[in-house]
Design a protein that fits this description.
heterodimer; A: 87 residues; alpha+beta; five-stranded mixed beta sheet; 3 helices; 25% helix; 24% strand; B: 153 residues; 4 helices; 8 strands; 35% strand
Chain lengths: 87, 153
């Protein structure tokens, strides 16, 4: 059994999903952020709502900004969030 | 060389400048930017009575560190401080402090502007505003911030 991945949600993505983070086994055939988003969005209504407007979702893999084509491997930490608004 | 902190408590601007310059005689100019909470939200009908800053713990420090490293590559900096607050804040309160020190003013001023412009678009913070009418909303990213950040690329 390979290491699980940790998925973190921030701001309104966290509110829509209903949890700040979750651990899951990387499903067979999921090797990119895009594939992970498709997998998560198909899980339930909450995840579907969070990823409904994909253009406003940004991501990070292992705390580095990433994009839909970025690789995801067992043990990775993947964060999903809206465009940043600090400062 | 850079001092980076993410904290809930307020910061003391004088103390931070004193810490940056302590024992040094090579600094000739210090740039400083302080971002504060405004009560008039962009386009909102109701006044802002509070704001909550959320962050991605761990990634925020890394992201700010990279921005500070980039500033140090572009300008001959002698020191830099970035402090960003998180948690609940009220109008008038401080949100962020950026200080950049160099031997001359232009580098200090330009690096200060660069640091805040990049921080606004490349550090994982999110603002949620609470309005006087009881509603609340996550602040949308602004195109003006992207434009400000892109002028340094």
């Amino acid at each position: 059994m390979s290491e699980p991945i940790r998925v973190l949600y921030f701001a309104w993505l966290r509110e829509r999903v209903g949890v700040a983070q979750e651990e899951l086994a990387l499903p067979e055939g999921v090797g990119t952020v895009a594939a992970l988003v498709d997998y998560l969005a198909a899980r339930d209504a909450r995840h579907a709502a969070a990823f409904r407007d994909g253009r406003t979702v940004r991501c990070a893999v292992n705390q580095e900004f990433a994009d839909l084509s970025s690789a995801v491997q067992p043990g990775d930490e993947v964060g999903f969030f809206p465009p940043v608004t600090g400062g | 060389m850079s001092h980076i902190k993410v904290q809930t408590e307020d910061f003391d601007i004088g103390a931070e400048i004193a810490a940056l310059t302590a024992g040094r005689t090579d600094i000739g100019g210090i740039g400083c930017f302080i971002g504060t909470v405004r009560a008039d939200a962009n386009g909102a009908a109701s006044a802002v009575i509070g704001m909550t800053l959320e962050q991605y713990p761990g990634m925020t420090e890394r992201a700010i560190g990279k921005i500070a490293d980039e500033a140090a590559e572009r300008w001959p900096l002698l020191g830099c401080t970035v402090i960003h607050r998180v948690g609940p804040l009220r109008p008038g309160e401080n949100i962020v402090l950026v200080i950049a020190a160099s031997s001359h003013r232009q580098a200090a001023l330009d690096a200060t502007a660069f640091l805040i412009d990049w921080l606004k678009t490349k550090a994982p913070f999110w603002k949620r505003e609470d309005f006087a009418d009881g509603n609340g909303a996550w602040v949308d990213a602004r195109e003006a911030d992207d434009a400000a950040a892109s002028r340094w690329s």
